[in-house]
Amino acid sequence: MEKIIDGIKKFKKESQSEYVKKYSHLTSGQTPKTLFITCCDSRVVPTTFTSSEPGDLFVFRNVGNKVAPYKNENSYESDAYKAIEYGIKKLKISDIIICGHSECGAMNEDDEKSKQNVIKQIENIKTYQIIKDEISSENLKINGLWFEIKTANVYKYLPETNEFEIIK
Ligand SMILES: [Zn+2]
């Protein structure tokens, strides 16, 4: 905790006033267009590798970037569902990204398993009626990404070939 407090003090001293000025538009509300679902892993920092700013990404994280499939209308198995519902209804997001990563503890550090897991979560998320409706009215796209820790390369899932292609 001490390291965190020291970091807050450093931020306060060196960057806070500039930050408040730069992001003053965010005090009136957030308008992110992307719901970014990823793993809790500390090495995965989506704002860094997507060059995003505060206000850009609506982020949901859990271990293994999972979205449980729809069960029944009174029992949403997925804790991601609240983020999905808020993202669609309130924020009018146009993209959902499910992002896995290399050396993922939840995948026993099996990179192929981690990629397959992203594809599985894309299938799972499409079991929700709210998602089906948004996709069919072309308001929403579901995307898969995969982040490689040792190279910091990001791969995009291509449904046509069922493969992940490096983003150059
Ligand atoms: Zn992970």
Describe the structure.
By secondary structure, the protein is α/β, with parallel strands linked by helices. The chain has helices spanning 2-14, 16-22, 46-49, 80-89, 111-125, 129-136, and strands spanning 34-39, 57-62, 95-101, 141-147, 154-158, 163-166. The protein has a single domain (25-166), classed as Beta-carbonic Anhydrase, Chain A, CATH 3.40.1050. The chain contains 6 helices and 6 strands. A hairpin with a 4-residue loop joins strand 5 and strand 6.
The Cα radius of gyration reads 17 Å
Q: How many strands appear in the DSSP assignment?
A: 6
CATH topology: Beta-carbonic Anhydrase, Chain A
The class by helix and strand makeup works out as alpha/beta
**Oligomeric form of this entry?**
single chain
What is the mean predicted local confidence, pLDDT?
Answer: 95
* Low-confidence blocks of residues: none
Amino-to-carboxy terminus distance: 38 Å
Percent range for β-strand residues: 15-25%
For the largest beta sheet, what order do the strands appear in spatially? 2-1-3-4-5-6
Tell me the CATH architecture: 3-Layer(aba) Sandwich
